Give the backbone structure.
Amino acid sequence: VIIPGLDGDGVEGRTILGGFVAIVIVGLIRGFSVMLRRFFNFTA
């Protein structure tokens, strides 16, 4: 994948990095909520 303007001021690189971090955070939150739900279902 070629990203145009990446060697310019690096705005696209920062946007891609921010999007990747956001995806990781959302994945962690979803995994934690699923784990919490399974824990409550197990104890109930």
